[in-house]
TrEMBL record:
This is DUF393 domain-containing protein. It comes from Spiribacter aquaticus. GO terms for molecular function: protein-disulfide reductase activity. It holds the Pfam family DCC1-like.
Amino acid sequence: MTRPTLYFDGSCGMCRREIDHLRPRLRHRIDLVDISQSGFQPPAGYQLADMMAQLHFHDGRRMQVGLRASLGYWRVAGGGFRWLARVLTLPGLFQCGDWAYNRWAAWRLRRLRCEPPR
């Protein structure tokens, strides 16, 4: 089993603020990788553009994408985040949350013009 790894877009202000807020809870438990840094190489089988489009979290066994990725690292963060992750896995709420996350992620790419480093 490998160490859990969160792949986030540090060029996105909203993403960076959330990670900076959670960093004290996460840094000793998971690797935090800013995919906007030049020289970043995606893990085998993944494309940078896809990783920029949605959050990716490798939980040590498999890759979680989108809302599932958020739920994964929120569980690691603990406290109120663990409670929020539990609530969002309830039937119906997960589907609504996933729909909202996907809309937000698409908006973020268009609105903020987040692009992979060259």
